[in-house]
Amino acid sequence: MIHLNIGSNLNSNFGNKFDNISIAIKLLIDNKFDVKKISNFYDTPSYPNKNLPNFLNVGIFGTFNKSAKELRNIMQDNFIIEAPKISYEELSEDGTKKWILDVGNQDSVEMVLIPEGNRATLCVSSQVGCAINCSFCATGKQGFSRNLEVSEIIGQVWLAANSYGIPRTANDKNITNVVMMGMGEPLHNFDPVVSAMNIMLDENAYGLSKRKVTLSTSGLVPEINKLGKVSDVSLTISLHAPNDELRNTLVPVNKKYPIQLLLDAVKNYVEGCDDRRITTIEYILIDKVNDTLELAKELADLLSQIKCKINLIPFNEFNESDYLQPSGNRIRKFKDYLVKRGYVTTIRSTRGDDIMAACGQLVGQVNDKTRRKERIQRAKIEAQSI
Fold first, then answer.
1. DSSP of 210-271, one letter per residue?
2. Below-70 pLDDT ranges, the chain
3. How far is 191 from 221, CA to CA, in rounded Å?
4. What is the pLDDT of residue 172?
5. Dihedral, CA of residue 136, residue 356, residue 158 and residue 230, to nearest 10
6. Which pLDDT score, from 0 to 100, does residue 33 have?
7. Which of 27, 80, 219, 299: CA 20 to 30 A from 340?
8. Secondary structure of residue 336 in the 3-state scheme
C-alpha cells in the first residue's frame, strides 16, 4: 500500500485548488495507480508564512504494480516545477538586462533587471499584454492575451535572482527591489499578483521589505481599496496628467475612475499602512502634450492633498507612437517648478533604451484576443490612403 499526500494553495490555469488536486489524482489513475481510498479534504494555514493562502490537502491510499522508481518518474513527468523558458536575453550598454520569456501559446513577456550600485531592481510583468491601453505605452499597443499565473510571476524573480552565474542561497539578496511595472496592469490580475508579492516578502523565500516591493497601477480604484485590506506594499500611481480631460486621453481608465476618486483611494491606502508611507506619483513627460509650466502648476495644486513624491519620466520613444520626448530644458523647468512648490521630485534616468527595455517600451509577443493591434494597423493604413 502506498500513501501519497497532495496539497495546493494557489489557483492555476486548470482552475482552483480543488481542481488542481482533482487533476493530479486523475493523472495518477491514468498511469495505473490503483486508488483504494481518498481521505477527507483538509484546509490548513500556510506555514511558516501565514499571509499566503491556506492549503487544501488530501491523502491518497493505493497500490501500484510497478517499482517506486517508475512511480517517481511518472510524478516527475506530470508534476513539473520549472522556471519560465527564456526565448531571448540582451544586455544594455548601461548594464540593464532584458529577458523575453516564452509562456506558451505563442505568448511571451518581458522582464528587466536594472543594476545600480548596491541595488538591483527587477521590473516584473503581470500580464501578457495589457487591457488598459495607455496612449504612450508600447505594451498597450500589443493588445491583451491573458493574466500570468503566480508561478509565472514569481518565476521571473527566481530567474533573475539565479542569473548571476552561481546558485542563489537563502541569504543572498541578488534582487534588492521588485517593481510590478512590467507588462500589464497588476491590479487586473489581483489574486496571483498579491500571492506572488507575499512570496517575495516571505523571509523563507526572498525576504524583501514591504518598502522594496512596489506595485504600480493606472488607477483601478476598487482594487486599490481591496489591496489595502490584504497588503501594504509600496504603491505607485501612474498619473501622467493633472486633470481629467487630459488624463482621459492618456490613460483611458480615467473615464471610469477619475482623478479625485483615485486620490481618495490612495489616501485611504496610505492611512491603512502602519508606517509613515509616502506614495510615488509617476508622470511621463511628453513633448508639448503634458509638459507645460501651466500643467506643472495644476499638478502641484492637485497633489497638495496627499503625501507624495513625484517621479518624472521622460517619454521613451517607440515605433508605434507619434509622441516625442521633451527637450532637456523643458524637463528641467517642469521639475524645478515642482521643487519650488516643495515636492521631492526626481527625473528617472533612462535605462536600457538601446535594447528597448526602458519604461513604456516593453512589448513581448501577445496573442491578442482584443484585436487591438489589428485595429491600430488598419487605422494607419486608412490614414495613409487619405
1. TTSEEEEES--HHHHHHHHHH---EEEEE---SSHHHHHHH-GGGGTS-HHHHHHHHHHHHH
2. 13-14, 48, 79-81, 165-173, 356-364, 369, 372-386
3. 16
4. 58
5. -10
6. 86
7. 219
8. helix
Instruction: State how far the Cα of 167 lies from the Cα of 174, in Å rounded to an integer.
Output: 11
For residue 152, give the C-alpha cell: 509565472
Contact yes or no for 54/44 (Cβ under 8 A): yes
100-127: per-residue pLDDT in tens? 999 988 899 999 999 888 889 999 999 9
- Give dist(CA 105, CA 308) in Å, integer: 41
3-state DSSP assignment of residue 337? helix
* CA atoms within 13 A of residue 149's CA, in its CB half-sphere: 16
Instruction: Name the active-site residue from 130, 149, 359, 382.
Output: 359
Query: Is 271 considered catalytic here?
Result: no
Q: What is the pLDDT of residue 31?
A: 83
Q: How confident is the model at residue 15, as a pLDDT? A: 72
Structural domains of the chain ordered from first start: 2-78 (3.30.70.560), 85-378 (3.20.20.70)
Of 82, 90, 110, 282, the catalytic one is 110
**How many other C-beta atoms are found inside a 10 Å radius of the C-beta of residue 204?**
10
CA distance 192 to 169: 25
* CB-based contact 317:323 (threshold 8 Å): yes
Does 359 participate in catalysis according to the annotation?
yes
Query: What whole-number distance in Å separates Cα of residue 207 and Cα of residue 199?
Result: 8
Virtual CA dihedral for 212, 217, 222, 226, nearest 10 degrees?
Answer: -20
**d(C-alpha 215, C-alpha 266), whole Å:** 12
